[in-house]
Write a structure and sequence with these properties.
alpha+beta, Aspartate Aminotransferase, domain 1, 6-stranded antiparallel β-sheet, 6 strands
């Protein structure tokens, strides 16, 4: 089955993230893009940092600050059951201004060096 085309709004948001990371990171920093959680993820130094799904922005922030970020307007938890502290969807209203946009990018990049990388799972080989 062919992949569905990506909506123009999503492509613009991905391009804006790519530009933001290019402005803030030096050439030695590894940035990889891949599909993760059904969204377009940007991995910084092998760790999920930011992602895009539709018009929503996924940010990874310090888990110990989860309650503070969960109360902000235009923000919702990745897992409403609380299973993934520190991961948030930011709706367009939450990143509409330049200051809001820069806040989320800076916060995700500031946490990235302390974030743990999740080891890739190996697929089981059938006997």
């Amino acid at each position: 089955m062919p992949a569905r085309p990506i909506a123009p709004e999503t492509l613009r948001l991905i391009a804006a993230l790519q530009d933001a990371l290019a402005e803030r990171l030096d050439a030695r920093t590894s940035v990889q893009e891949r599909t993760l959680f059904g969204c377009h993820a940007l991995m910084v130094d092998g760790k999920l940092c930011l992602a895009v799904k539709g018009e929503d922005l996924l940010v990874r922030l310090p888990p110990q600050e989860h309650a503070v970020h969960a109360e902000q307007p235009g923000v919702r938890e990745l897992d409403p059951r609380g299973g993934m502290p520190g991961y948030f969807w930011v709706e367009p209203a939450g990143y509409a201004t330049r200051a809001q946009w820069q806040h989320w990018i800076a916060a995700a990049l500031a946490y990235n060096p302390q974030a743990r990388a999740t080891p890739r799972r190996r697929r089981k080989v059938a006997p």
